[in-house]
Amino acid sequence: MIVFMYPGQGSQQPGMGEAWIDHPSWELVAEASEVTDRDVARLLLTADAAELTETRNSQLSTFVMSMVTLDAVTRLGTEAAGHAGHSLGEYSALTASGVLDFGDAAALVAERGNAMQAAADEREGTMAAILGLDDDDVQIACSRAPGEVWLANHNAPGQAVIAGTHEAIDKAAAIARELGAKRVMPLQVGGAFHTPFMAPARDRLAKAIDRTEFRDPEGTVVANVDGAEHGRGVEWPDLLKAQLTSPVRWRQTLMTLNDAGFTTFVELGPGEVLGRLVKRTLKGTRPLSVAVPEDLDSLLEALAATPASASAALEGEYLFATERLVVSPANGVFEAGEGIAVGASVGVGHLIGRVGDHDVRSPFAGELMGVLALEGERVTASQPIAWLRTV
């Protein structure tokens, strides 16, 4: 089974949206800008590293980039039975699984970034990665160190993140080295996230969460707070509130997904951090990633290369590399084009039909296997219209 993973703050990169400008999924950027009253396109195209590192900017830009990538993957017909996100990425996972509306999620992410920025400005703090030490020993180092420092991320075996004041982190790092840590890496972040320092942000974000509708998820979604699956929408508001001051249990999340039978882990969005954590946690697993449009065909080829026995067992979860979906470019009533019938030969740019005032043209060449929208049916943007089998 396939699980989509969504990165959190720290994966952002200057110019990360440039490769996507001409892709149909870029339309989500304008929608996010309208909802949040922010120039998201500028963040994705021209903001420098220093500006993107600011919490309010890194969170919104990373979320939107993951959603653009998800939309592009979905347009190909590839779907996942499970979703999980690291910290901020949990909002992406909830959007992808239908728990949150995209507009609502964008508004929450913007408020989350602003709230965490304000909390970090109020209580100065930082974070550091501890490598080569068991989580229990990392916890011991935090407990022994004088001052305020906590274990904030359970990322993978031998990889954890601590957070707190600069002085307390320095002392905990020294103790961690005494206990056998191979390396301590300061992280370039603007605060001590997932610690009690974020309590003001939790209280502020709670008000926005309480105004938002949460639906039951489609498929499996695993939470950061406890590393467990939660299948009811009413559970997620409290989980998101608790997330800000609780450790991210990513290693436990991956183990839960593995135990549930998920075998293919695909990271959607900037960077490949989560893929590396999968490799460390689930030995023998070969994670996939989509960060730029060129990765889309590579993803389909990788899924099609799944052994026959595995693909048979996972029927319905894999889209083979010879199959493509043409989706609606907008909301409106669908009208089929001339000569659109099963078995017809379709070329790149071929007119499949119209949705309102918008042409529906195939970005692929191949044989038309089916028309998925009915004549006169009202369809929504990104809804599948036709199914092709390419040569």
Describe the structure.
With 391 residues, this protein is α/β, with parallel strands linked by helices. It is 38% helix and 21% strand. It has helices at residues 27-36, 40-45, 49-53, 55-75, 89-96, 102-122, 135-144, 166-178, 199-210, 236-243, 250-259, 273-281, 295-304, 308-313, and strands at 2-6, 82-85, 126-131, 149-156, 159-164, 183-187, 220-221, 248-249, 264-268, 288-290, 323-327, 332-336, 345-346, 351-355, 358-361, 366-371, 378-379, 384-389. The chain is elongated.
Give a count of the beta strands, DSSP E runs of length 2 or more.
18
| Poorly predicted parts | 307-321
Instruction: Quote the average pLDDT.
Output: 90
Please outline the major beta sheet.
5 strands, parallel
Distance between the termini: 26 Å
Which of globular, elongated, flat, extended, rod-shaped describes the shape? elongated
Protein structure class: alpha/beta
Percent in strands:
15-25%
Query: Cα-atom Rg, whole angstroms?
Result: 22 Å
Question: Could you name the key traits of this structure?
Answer:
single chain; 391 residues; alpha/beta; five-stranded parallel β-sheet; five-stranded mixed β-sheet; 14 helices; 18 strands; 21% strand
Brief synopsis:
This protein has helices at residues 27-36, 40-45, 49-53, 55-75, 89-96, 102-122, 135-144, 166-178, 199-210, 236-243, 250-259, 273-281, 295-304, 308-313, and strands at 2-6, 82-85, 126-131, 149-156, 159-164, 183-187, 220-221, 248-249, 264-268, 288-290, 323-327, 332-336, 345-346, 351-355, 358-361, 366-371, 378-379, 384-389. The chain has 391 residues and is of the alpha/beta class. Helix 4 (55-75) runs parallel beside helix 5 (89-96) and helix 4 (55-75) packs antiparallel against helix 6 (102-122).
